[in-house]
C-alpha cells in the first residue's frame, strides 16, 4: 500500500498537469479506498488506477467549468 501513491501519481498528473491537483486526486482515492469495504476487488492496483484516472478527469472537467464561469463573471472577451 505504501507504493501506491508513487504508482498512481503519474496517471493523475498526466491528466491534470498540476502537481497539487494530482496529489489531491490520489489522496482522495486512497482515503476512500482505505475507508470502504473492499470485497470483490480482484486487482487492487488496477482498481486504484481506474479510480485515480476517473477522479482526475472529473477534477479537470470541474476546473474547466470553474474557469469558464470566472471568465464570464469578469466579462472576459476573446
Q: How is the topology of this model organized?
A:
Elements: H1 4-16, H2 19-35, H3 44-73
How would you describe this protein?
- The chain has one domain (4-73).
- 77% of the residues lie in helices and 0% in strands.
- The chain contains 3 helices and no strands.
- α1 packs across α2.
- It is elongated and about 50 Å long.
What's the short story on this structure?
This protein has three helices and no strands. The protein is mostly helical.
Gyration radius from CA atoms, angstroms? 15 Å
| Total discrete domains | 1
Please state the average pLDDT score.
Answer: 90
Structural class: mainly alpha
Total beta strands? 0
**Series of secondary-structure elements, N-terminal to C-terminal:** HHH
DSSP helical segment count: 3
Choose one word for the global shape. Answer: elongated
> Biggest sheet, in brief?
none
What percentage of the residues does DSSP assign to strands (E)? under 5%
Amino acid at each position: 500500500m505504501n507504493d501506491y501513491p508513487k504508482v498512481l501519481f503519474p496517471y493523475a498528473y498526466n491528466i491534470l498537469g498540476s502537481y497539487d491537483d494530482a496529489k489531491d486526486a490520489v489522496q482522495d482515492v486512497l482515503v476512500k479506498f482505505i475507508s470502504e469495504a473492499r470485497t470483490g476487488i480482484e486487482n487492487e492496483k488496477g482498481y486504484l488506477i481506474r479510480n485515480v484516472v476517473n477522479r482526475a478527469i472529473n477534477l479537470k472537467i470541474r476546473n474547466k467549468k470553474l474557469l469558464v464561469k470566472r471568465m464570464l463573471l469578469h466579462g472576459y472577451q476573446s
